[in-house]
Amino acid sequence: MSKEDLKESGKDLGKAFKTLGKTFLRSVDRTAENLGVVEEDSIDENGNTVFSDGSWKETGKELGKSLAGMAKNVVKTVNEEINEKN
Question: pTM of the predicted model, to two decimals?
Answer without folding.
Answer: 0.54
